[in-house]
């Protein structure tokens, strides 16, 4: 009979082989797919020097060989563990499969794999509007797990069940994994039943953490995707904010610095404090961007980690383009119509509030901030008047999109109190009555701040003028002395 020591040695060897092979599969597939556009065969030829069909066959063959070795190793591991674990340990688990539980497998690896979880994919934030009957009308739940065209449907888990957890607790509804990593609820819809969240404890003042989990048999790990869910009420007033060039200083550079380099403070002056003030006025802030779904997690990290002089951005849902990278690029670069996508998103949000019982005649969307003419089109279609749509340029200068409006002018940046002083009187007529008192308080405060700031600017200008005069006087004196004859010895 095999000794316990021999079993441990065999188990460790087989486990190492299995894990290494599974990691190799992931590395090969990820390395290849990260270089190839989903539908760009010409790009594949230029990158690898072979046609897409030939390269695909080669990768699939390599993957198949590695998976065979890995399956043999895991099968042997299972046989060895059967001598150590009781039969009850092999009862059908929560995913409907036979085999050692994940914790047992983790322990058998000597603690090297403390958890079988792996983040893999992206999801768009969800807005859940709570009706008076405690029913929730939500926006679409766009979830996309990482996928590869070089893996079979079985390997990627098409048709598998996806668990949905809210603040760590599993919801009674589940999703199904489709082609290309997409998910839908088991009813086939992108939204859950209106009573699915009725008995779930949700935060109304803060973000709720949503987690989607998929057990992938081919890698013996649980992949997960995360997003946020925000509870709104039917009578909300919403401020729309674009990201690239609107929060960040510029479009392309802002994308590179925030998403690629993690420089989350690459923002226009006064951005965080300005939108925090609007949030304190009981306005909901909606971050709406034409970035693809593939960048949702990185964009969310940017919003949650942005900071300026101890001020952070207010919480709010992040809505990206539900298409992947290719579709988003077609929308933004080729078709040049991102306003159509944004208009559709805003219409969906509007319908959620109406279905939840909105009765006020005040508009849902009261102001919008962007940096392109397409943003103006989207906000205008959503019902925002032109005198409440603002455009910001790369110098941080802000202007109202309605150039003919009386009193409209160019403002220095978000930290200019005159921007709020322009907005506040107009907001009073666009929000429910209970929010008007707070707006009046902020108007008085901003007037005092504007006066103090103006006095400070005058003092700075006077000081600068004095310094320039002193510099010119010293310069002239030095020139006069240089022209004086040298004393004779």
TrEMBL record:
InterPro entries: HAD-like_sf (IPR036412), HAD_sf (IPR023214), LIPIN (IPR026058), Lipin_N (IPR007651), LNS2 (IPR013209), LNS2/PITP (IPR031315)
Domain LNS2/PITP: 239-401
Pfam families in the cross-refs: Lipin_N, LNS2
MF GO annotations: phosphatidate phosphatase activity
Ribosomal protein keyword on record: no
Keyword ATP-binding: no
Ranges in coiled-coil conformation: 449-477
Keywords associated with the record: Coiled coil
SUPFAM superfamilies listed in its UniProt record: HAD-like
Family membership noted in the UniProt record: Belongs to the lipin family.
Entry protein name: Lipinlike protein putative
Gene giving rise to this polypeptide: AlNc14C45G3675
């Amino acid at each position: 009979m095999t000794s316990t020591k021999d079993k441990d040695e065999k188990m460790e060897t087989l486990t190492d082989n299995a894990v290494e092979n599974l990691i190799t599969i992931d590395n090969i597939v990820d390395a290849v797919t990260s270089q190839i556009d989903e539908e760009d065969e010409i790009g594949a030829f230029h990158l690898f020097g072979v046609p897409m069909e030939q390269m695909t066959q080669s990768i699939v063959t390599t993957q198949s060989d590695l998976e065979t070795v890995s399956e043999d190793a895991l099968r042997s591991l299972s046989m060895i563990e059967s001598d150590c674990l009781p039969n009850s340990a092999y009862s059908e688990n929560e995913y409907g499969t036979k085999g050692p539980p994940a914790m047992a497998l983790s322990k058998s690896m000597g603690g090297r794999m403390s958890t079988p979880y792996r983040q893999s994919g992206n999801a768009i934030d969800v807005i859940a509007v709570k009706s008076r009957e405690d029913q929730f009308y939500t926006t679409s739940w766009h979830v996309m797990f990482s996928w590869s065209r070089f893996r079979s449907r079985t390997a990627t888990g098409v048709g598998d069940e996806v668990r949905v957890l809210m603040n760590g607790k599993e919801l009674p509804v589940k999703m199904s994994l489709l082609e290309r990593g997409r998910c839908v609820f088991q009813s086939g819809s992108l939204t859950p039943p209106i009573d699915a969240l009725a008995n779930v404890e949700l935060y109304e003042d803060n973000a709720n953490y949503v987690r989607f989990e998929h057990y992938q048999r081919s890698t013996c790990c649980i992949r997960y995707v995360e997003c946020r869910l925000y509870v709104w009420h039917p009578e909300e007033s919403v401020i729309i904010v674009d990201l690239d060039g609107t929060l960040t200083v510029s479009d392309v550079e802002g994308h590179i610095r925030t998403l690629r380099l993690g420089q989350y403070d690459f923002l226009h002056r006064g951005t965080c404090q300005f939108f925090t003030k609007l949030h304190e006025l009981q306005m909901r802030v909606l971050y709406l961007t034409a970035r693809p779904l593939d960048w949702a997690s990185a964009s969310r990290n940017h919003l949650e980690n942005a900071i300026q002089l101890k001020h952070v951005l207010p919480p709010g849902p992040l809505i990206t383009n539900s298409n992947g990278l290719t579709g988003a690029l077609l929308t933004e670069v080729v078709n040049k119509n991102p306003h159509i996508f944004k208009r559709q998103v805003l219409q969906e949000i509007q319908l959620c509030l109406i279905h939840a019982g909105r009765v006020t005649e005040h508009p849902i969307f009261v102001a919008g901030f962007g940096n392109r003419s397409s943003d103006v089109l989207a906000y205008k279609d959503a019902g925002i008047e032109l005198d409440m749509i603002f455009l910001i340029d790369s110098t941080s200068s802000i202007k109202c999109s309605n150039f003919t409006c009386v009193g409209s002018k160019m403002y220095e940046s978000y930290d200019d109190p005159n921007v709020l002083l322009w907005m506040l009187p107009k907001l009073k007529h666009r929000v429910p009555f209970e929010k008007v008192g707070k707006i009046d308080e902020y108007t008085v405060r901003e007037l005092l701040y504007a006066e103090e700031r103006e006095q400070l600017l005058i003092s700075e200008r006077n000081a600068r003028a004095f310094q320039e005069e002193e510099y010119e006087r010293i310069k002239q004196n030095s020139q006069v002395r240089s022209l004086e004859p040298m004393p004779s010895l």
